[in-house]
Specification:
Layout (H helix, E strand, L loop, with lengths): L28 H12 L1 H10 L9 H5 L10 E6 L4 E6 L12 E5 L9 H15 L3 E5 L8 H17 L7 E6 L1 H15 L7 E5 L8 H5 L2 H4 L5 H17 L20 E6 L5 H14 L3 E6 L13 H19 L11 E2 L7
Helix pairs in contact: 2-9, 4-11, 5-6
């Protein structure tokens, strides 16, 4: 497949990164249809929720409904009990089981810290396992309103600790998360480094939510163009998180990944749609990683919806998973000591037809 790029002079006005970007253009008909469907169904519902005067926590119907969804043929899943929650090993076709000294992916699902779970993401996780050739440990961390975001982070850090107890080195673990899971992936990496556990192999964020201060998203042009979320919906989510912290008597400040120390982070891959409201987060994180000298790749996918990688019927999703697989494979080939200043690269990926 051929790829087409835009040079800096003609890039979209809202794409503000600290390096010369190359942006892939072109969308499949399936992608356009999905975007229209979400914009006329899901976004209006979330906008109503954002404007509701009461703090309503929607039931996690997605997780229950996802039980009817098929998973890729050959998928193997096995439930495991983790220190503070449960999870499951997921392997794609012909992917070997995890073993001490082997490389694994720790997957942290999205859902705004209050929805989705292992079932909704099992298909995506299986396809990622196949692309990376590694088993994935998917974590069913506690969610709001019963648990705080701090609890969610704690559960995911404990899952990494459990992997270490099984003989898996931190340096052999790639952290992957979508949406709110992207927030968790960076938090786990930070916690592991601070605890002296070592540095994870890398971090991958799919449409990651990385800034819990909605100010930048409210001011970003994508607050009006996102197919799924308005910035107001994210502001309501943060309001709910604050309310949960108050109810649980949590007084420690909540630190967003974009405000964390980043200079000792592992290589990072960020994938985000060009019209997403969380593009503001990805741009800011890319700039700060660049300033910190961390190898980082920001892939901006033309017009794609939030976490489009979950839609197995999209050619763009298949290409995005291929990119993630290539990134994870590159981590295995990367010398442990090779870290230094590297510019953020907005990668040109094959155009989806």
């Amino acid at each position: 497949m051929r790829s087409r790029t835009r040079r800096p002079a003609t890039r979209p006005a809202h794409l503000q990164v600290a390096a010369e970007p190359e942006v892939v253009v072109g969308r499949s008909l399936r992608s356009r249809a999905l975007g229209l469907g979400l914009r006329t169904t899901v976004r209006p519902l979330l906008d109503v929720w954002a404007l509701t005067p009461f703090r309503v926590v929607p039931p996690n119907v997605l997780e229950h409904g996802a039980r009817l969804l098929p998973v890729p043929q050959g998928t193997v899943s096995e439930r495991v009990d983790l220190p503070e929650c449960h999870g499951e090993w997921v392997r794609g076709r012909d992917v070997p089981a995890a073993e001490p000294g082997g490389r694994v992916v720790l997957y942290l699902h999205g859902g705004g810290f209050l929805s989705c779970g292992l079932t909704t993401h099992r298909g995506l996780v299986s396809r990622l396992s196949t692309r990376t050739g590694q088993p994935l440990l998917s974590v069913a961390y506690g969610q709001m309103p019963r648990h705080s975001i701090a609890d969610s982070v704690s559960h995911c850090v404990a899952a990494l600790g459990w992997l270490r107890e099984q003989g898996v080195r931190t340096e052999d673990v790639t952290l992957v998360g979508d949406s709110a899971g992207g927030y968790l992936a960076f938090c786990v990496a930070r916690a592991a480094i601070d605890a002296g556990w070592g540095t994870p192999a890398g971090v991958v964020g799919l449409s990651p939510l990385l800034d819990l201060d909605p100010t930048r998203k409210l001011a970003h042009p994508n607050a009006r163009t996102c197919h799924t979320f308005s910035a107001a919906a994210i502001a309501r989510l943060i309001d709910l998180a604050d309310h949960v912290d108050t109810r649980l008597k949590i007084t420690a400040p909540r630190l967003s990944p974009v405000d964390m120390r980043l200079d000792d982070m592992p290589p990072v891959l960020l994938q985000v749609g060009s019209r997403e409201v969380v593009l503001a987060d990805a741009e800011l994180m890319a700039n700060r990683l660049h300033a910190a000298g961390v190898p980082a790749t920001l892939q901006v996918w033309d017009g794609q919806v939030h976490v489009f990688q979950m839609a197995a019927f999209l050619p763009e999703a298949r290409l995005a998973l291929h990119e993630i697989g290539e990134f994870v494979h590159s981590l295995a080939r990367r010398p442990a000591a090779s870290r230094g200043a590297a510019p953020v690269r907005v990668a040109a990926v094959p155009q989806a037809g």
